[in-house]
Design goal:
With about 230 residues, the chain is an alpha+beta fold. The chain is built from ten helices and five strands; from the N terminus they run H-H-H-E-E-E-E-H-H-H-H-E-H-H-H.
Length: about 230
């Protein structure tokens, strides 16, 4: 797949959609939307193909622009962004990638958005035992320059069964284990943006390798995949 870059028309359309977030306007501009949607599919596909050179990407999913408003106070029918996720392949590889393109709100994220209760407990137990390797990875200058600090929701004090005075409580109380990197509109429109995203995602790999090892072993280091 040939590389493609994001054009200014994508931002122009999303800005107009934000001001005219209704079905009548969207229907009138449906052809333009489909053209830009295909452009974004190609862009996300380009990133995915680059990723496959150094990671096992099982699936690329581009999210629909239509909002689910059934349980939301915001009844606007359309998202004002294009976004996609990449799922890694196999039970031995953990972690996911996310890409979000929006005027003055573009970002990428990587990590663990919603661990199930078994995975969450296993991660917390690992940090209760030892978090030195994790801290070394995320403190690396090359890692910090791209991803900064660990983000995600957390409990206020300590999860049930854990000591709120534990030296690793800042990690243990996390409910999500994600890293986020924001981009300016100028950066998104650069012709090498797909390459930039690929390089950023490569930088997260030591973290993914550690977390994959944690989530596929018990506290004794014995594999759970055999």
């Amino acid at each position: 797949m040939s590389q493609i870059h994001i054009t200014k028309e994508v931002f122009r359309f999303l800005k107009a959609l934000e001001k005219n977030n209704n079905r009548a306007w969207f229907t009138e501009h449906k052809d333009e939307f489909k053209t830009l949607e295909n452009q974004m599919k190609s862009f996300f596909g380009t990133v995915s193909e680059k990723m496959k050179r150094h990671d096992e990407i099982e699936r690329l999913k581009m999210f629909r622009i239509y909002r689910d408003v059934r349980f939301s106070h915001d009844k606007t029918p359309y998202k004002i962004n294009f976004s996609a996720s990449m799922v890694r392949g196999g039970a031995h590889l953990r972690g996911g990638y996310y890409m979000h393109v929006q005027p003055k709100g573009s970002f990428i994220a990587a990590g663990f958005w919603s661990p199930n209760k078994e995975d969450l407990l296993r991660i917390r137990k690992e940090w209760e035992l030892d978090a030195d390797e994790l801290r070394e990875i995320i403190a690396e200058k090359s890692f910090q320059s791209v991803w900064g600090n660990l983000a995600g929701d957390e409990v206020k004090t300590a999860p049930k069964g854990f000591d709120k005075a534990h030296p690793n409580i800042d990690l243990i109380r996390k409910k999500q284990f994600i890293f986020v990197k924001n981009f300016s509109d100028k950066e998104v429109l650069a012709t090498d943006f797909a390459e930039v995203l690929d390089n950023c995602f490569q930088t997260i790999r030591p973290y993914f390798d550690l977390m994959s090892n944690v989530l596929t072993t018990n506290l004794n280091g014995e594999s759970l995949l055999d």
